[in-house]
Amino acid sequence: MDINALQTLLFVPANRPERxxxxxxxxxxxxxxxxxxxxxxxxxxxxxxALSNWLETQPADSVxxxxxxxxxxxxxxxxxxxRSRAVAAIIVPKADDPAALNELAHLSxxxxxxxxxxxxxxxxxxxxxxxxNVARLLFGKxxxxxxxxxxxxxxxxxxxxxxxxxxxxxxxxxCSRVHGLxxxxxxxxxxxxxxxxxxxxxxxxxxxxxxxFLLIHPAQVTxxxxxxxxxSAQILWAKHVLAAEVRExxxxxxxSGNMVDLPVMARAKRIMELVQHKS
Length: 279
Prior knowledge:
Blueprint lengths: L7 E6 L6 H5 L5 E5 L9 H12 L7 E4 L8 H8 L4 E6 L5 H10 L4 E5 L2 H5 L1 H5 L8 E2 L1 H8 L17 H13 L6 E2 L8 H14 L3 E4 L5 H8 L3 H17 L4 E3 L2 E3 L1 H17 L1
Parallel strand pairs: 1-2, 1-8, 2-3, 3-4, 4-5, 5-6, 7-8
Antiparallel strand pairs: 9-10
């Protein structure tokens, strides 16, 4: 599993083992089996046992696992689970301590994807991004909103104001680039059956520099993948740009009345690479 290529990551509660195979068949790039928030404390041990048995039946690098926090009573058993060959990477919740991430890297050699979801985590973002085995950063929007006392999410029926998170999202994109990580993964979209809203949300994240986002229901998988793929207009534009590049032998040219120089040509090439990857 290429961790940096993942775009659609679907959460599955660890206490619902009957959903594991269905999630794998959903078409998502990867599934995250959630041992943390999705599982009540009274059910965590049983969920761990069921997951352990299921992992034994799976091929290498099949799933990602969100573990419980380093200070929780279940941390040690979660790390034992993550040593399974079926586990491709570890999702680290509430990752605001770079030292804890480095310690986790000594306990497991799996790639780490820390959730950035508090003011303290953003304050320590550079140290977190440079911690051992960190591969990509994940945005935990709802926990950040709670930590900051933001009026989010609004009451049902009111529009979501994503502008409130623009600064946080931009920090994640910039920091990931500086530290050579894969592009960050955006937070969940909570309106499960709002396909238009999900599409707009995904494309806004892509414009900011995210390359994927987290899903909470299989119904979101297909709309998300369509939203994250280059549009027909983008593909046509990229073809025109690349044709002009060949025609003018790399010189600065105009396409549809707009200047096209090297960065724009590179963008066009990236779009066509995405098309080829998807096909």
